[in-house]
Design goal:
The chain has 421 residues and is of the alpha/beta class. The chain has helices spanning 2-7, 11-17, 55-60, 144-147, 258-265, 337-351, 372-384, 405-420; strands spanning 25-30, 38-43, 79-84, 92-98, 131-136, 150-152, 172-177, 180-184, 190-194, 200-204, 235-242, 248-252, 283-288, 293-298, 325-331, 360-365, 393-396. The chain has three domains: 3-84, no CATH class; 88-242, Distorted Sandwich (Spo0b-associated Gtp-binding Protein, Chain: A), CATH 2.70.210; 248-420, Rossmann fold. The structure holds guanosine-5'-triphosphate and magnesium ion (MG). Magnesium ion binds at residues 258-259, 270, 278-279, 298.
């Protein structure tokens, strides 16, 4: 399709011939056709001569790229491998929130016919609106927070004469996907973890309304002209980080067949292709077993050094943090499973987050593409590589050929029973 069309041109050609866009555009490219090293590229809009903001500045404005922004102007045959149109997924956003200021108190006096010294009757100002985050189901991206980054709740109304209190400002409810963690600006303090639907976090309190002059009436001062201004609403910058909630996480090298497996056991239809980094964003699917259903998340492929930012880096491993079980997918046609296995485990270890201690199942995929002898030889070598260490459960399948899928599902279900007891 379109994808293929792009692939048939050199990256540079493609870059030059595509019309200007208003959104940044991310894709993976390599210098030689389909071979490492891969570069994560971002094309940033509005870079024409005379543009007010510089390219790096524009890239900096997008938190997502803070640590991986690389811009390469490459004139050779730079092959475009994969792209992600529109960036529909975003798992981190930094936003500024401000609760509403309180309304001012009023300094007014009664004025009625025949009453000479009508006393003070200024009402209080209304309270400013709070800012509240609420976890909502059926959304799994923070993309809404990408372009709008400032949120202010309504101000309280000023108090009025005749003892009327100003109306309070409306609470500003900011919906976030369930699984969103709210962190301080430097990401060191976790304020809240909205891990269940409907959970709320009051992130900024509205300012109290000021007192009207009625409050200041006393025996010694019966006609106070004094009234307070409302207090300012709280304001702060917070970082939202989404950690998807799934039961099972799929990890492995690019091209191992993770997305193929997801599509074999769930109704999700992720992009599948015979080149690395097809999956650029985590994908969710629901797997139906005999008695229950499991949410599975397909994560972009890891490569050696992912924790130092190589390839897509390990940033998506955050989505495996909340899973109860890891499915480690290995391409069975690879000559040395043990080395591949250890490389991924090493990346998971470097990431931390308790990933290594999660129950794990190793899924050897693509067995349709290898002979029985080769399979058993490799299996023996793989098992041997664990030495005396405890071996994980190993399952052989062909995700594309749908071999061993039912057995895999049954084993996952069984393992879950063990996890839950
Ligand atoms: N022969 C064979 N090929 C398979 C099997 N499963 C997947 N493939 C092929 O392997 C290639 C990669 O599959 P994907 O599912 O895209 O791999 P992935 O692990 O999601 O890769 P990334 O998204 O890049 O990390 C595709 O060309 C698939 O058709 C299998 O069981 N047998
Ligand atoms: Mg994939």
């Amino acid at each position: 399709m379109q994808d293929e069309h792009y692939r048939s041109h050199s990256f540079f050609y493609w870059f030059l011939t595509t019309p200007r866009r208003i959104q940044p555009f991310v894709f993976i490219a390599s210098v030689e056709t389909d071979t490492p090293p891969y570069f994560l590229l971002v094309e940033v809009p509005g870079t024409a001569p005379g543009s007010k903001t510089s390219i790096p500045q524009r890239v900096q404005n997008h938190h997502r790229f803070r640590d991986v922004a690389i811009i390469i102007f490459y004139t050779g045959n730079c092959k475009f491998l994969s792209y992600n149109r529109g960036m529909k997924f975003l798992d981190k956003a930094k936003i500024f929130i401000k609760a509403g200021d309180g309304g001012n108190g009023a300094a007014t006096f009664r004025r009625e016919k025949y009453i000479e010294f009508g006393g003070p009757n200024g009402g209080d100002g209304g309270r400013g609106g709070d800012v509240v985050f609420r976890a909502v189901p059926n959304v799994n991206t923070l993309i809404d927070y990408r372009y709008k980054m400032h949120f202010t709740a309504e101000r309280g109304e000023n108090g009025m004469g005749k003892m009327r209190t100003g109306a309070s400002g409306e609470t500003l409810v900011l919906p976030v996907p369930t699984g969103t963690v709210i962190l301080s600006e430097n990401e060191e303090i976790e304020y809240a973890d909205l891990n269940t639907d409907g959970m709320e976090y009051l992130a900024a309190r509205g300012g109290n309304g000021g007192w009207g002059n009625l409050h200041f009436k006393s025996p010694t001062n019966r006609a106070p002209r004094q009234a307070n201004d409302g207090l300012p609403g709280e304001e702060r910058t917070v970082v939202l980080r989404l950690k998807l909630i799934a039961d099972i996480g799929l990890v492995g090298f690019p091209n191992a067949g993770k997305s193929t497996l997801l599509s074999a056991v769930t109704s999700a239809r992720p992009k599948i292709a015979n080149y690395p980094f097809t999956t650029l964003n985590p994908q969710l699917g629901v797997m139906y077993a005999h008695n229950r259903e499991f949410v599975m998340v397909d994560l972009p492929g890891l490569i050696e050094g992912a924790h130092t930012g190589v390839g897509l880096g390990d940033r998506f491993l955050g989505h495996a943090e909340r899973t109860k079980m890891i499915l480690h997918v290995i391409d069975g046609t690879e000559p040395d499973w043990a080395t591949r296995y250890k490389a991924i485990r090493h990346e998971m270890d470097s990431y931390g987050g308790g990933l290594l201690t999660k129950p794990e199942m190793v899924v050897i995929n693509k067995i349709d593409a290898i002979g029985d002898d080769e399979l058993s030889e490799k299996m023996t070598a793989f098992k041997k590589s664990f030495g005396r260490k405890k071996k994980p459960e190993i399952v052989t399948i062909s995700a594309a050929g749908r071999i061993g899928i039912d057995e895999l599902i049954a084993k996952i279900e069984k393992m879950f029973l063990g996890v839950e007891q």
